[in-house]
Design a protein that fits this description.
It contains five helices and ten strands; from the N terminus they run H-H-E-E-E-E-H-E-E-E-E-E-E-H-H. The chain has about 190 residues and is α+β, with helices and mostly antiparallel strands. The longest helix is centred in the C-terminal third of the chain and has 17 residues, at about 170-185. The protein is globular and about 45 Å long. The two termini are about 20 Å apart.
């Protein structure tokens, strides 16, 4: 299923998703280079809520830029298959070889503010990530490998821990809690 069809099929669960989906649709119509970082103000990213087969644990990384535990994901970098982007990013950031989507549908939509920061010796101005999240599954017994360019730690947490560990209050309360709530309803 291509991204536009996935987006058309997506049904927002809360006001945050309604509002952010509206912004995403507007950006797709008006913004240039949305799928690349050539647009310095706003661009597409894909994240993954990676759960184990029993769906009682979630994989998180300790993100170097945010200095906090975070979901896995990254920039589209020209790729329009954002599900593939999410899978690739999880594999690159965790070393996991067997990562599979639990659905091809978009799991969640977010507009994420990224504060200005230094990356690879260059300053990156504050900007917005128009993010789509996919629900992926991986074996929590498979070895993890830290990607030192991206993160300094990887660990499986309980769903409850995933809502309390990250430093960013907004991410904990608005995003991770929502992703867990959606998981409990996932069939």
């Amino acid at each position: 299923m291509d991204f536009l069809k996935q987006l058309e099929a997506f049904e927002p669960e809360c006001q945050q998703e309604v509002t952010d989906l509206s912004l995403l649709r507007r950006c797709l119509k008006t913004e240039q280079n949305l799928f690349t970082r050539e647009n310095p103000l706003i661009h597409m990213t894909a994240s993954a809520w990676v759960v184990n087969p029993s769906r009682d644990r979630v994989l998180m990384c300790y993100h170097k830029i945010y200095n906090s535990w975070s979901w896995l994901g990254g920039h589209a970098d020209g790729e329009r298959d954002l599900l593939q982007t999410a899978v690739r990013e999880v594999q690159e950031e965790s070393g996991l070889g067997n990562v599979r989507p639990l659905s091809e549908k978009i799991y969640s939509v977010e507009a994420l503010h990224v504060e200005g920061h230094w990356k690879r010796g260059a300053y990156v101005s504050s900007h917005i990530h128009m993010n789509v999240t996919y629900l992926l599954e991986a074996d929590d017994r498979e070895p993890l490998t830290v990607n030192e360019e991206e993160n300094s730690g990887l660990r499986w947490f309980t769903l409850e821990e995933a809502e309390t560990l990250p430093e960013e209050v907004w991410m904990r309360e608005m995003i991770y809690r929502k992703l867990n709530r959606k998981l409990s309803a996932f069939v």
